[in-house]
Specification:
mainly alpha, de novo design (two linked rop proteins), about 0% strand
């Protein structure tokens, strides 16, 4: 299976792009403060999925998936800050959180599917 065929990767790419094009419309101050952090966190989700996928050892892949899951959590924080600071409306906030929650479920399933070693618990 190719990386591009992984649904978790596809969702992460979609979320990253959606957030990028959302932040692109903000004024410069907000782009360079909260926007930069939000884009970096969102883009890191797919980047870490990709890096882990390219690793030879299952344990390394899992570790990068954990980093990716951390970036997903960070993205939720920045989305919440963007909503609280009136940069995104409630509907956009709810839509992004819903997509991030769906990604989280699929990501957890992907992590569980990565080859288990006999000594893993």
């Amino acid at each position: 299976m190719k990386l591009e065929d992984l649904v978790v990767y596809q969702l992460a790419m979609e979320i990253g792009d959606e957030i990028y094009f959302l932040v692109e419309k903000w004024d410069n101050f907000h782009k360079w403060t909260i926007g930069k952090q939000l884009i970096e966190a969102a883009d890191s989700i797919a980047a870490n999925i990709s890096e882990g996928y390219g690793r030879f050892f299952y344990k390394e892949n899992r570790q990068f998936q954990y980093y990716s899951r951390g970036s997903q959590s960070e993205t939720k924080t920045w989305v919440t800050k963007a909503r609280n600071r009136k940069h995104i409306d409630e509907a956009t906030y709810n839509s992004l959180l819903s997509k991030l929650d769906e990604l989280g479920k699929r990501h957890n399933s992907y992590i569980q599917s990565i080859g288990r070693l006999p000594n893993d618990k």
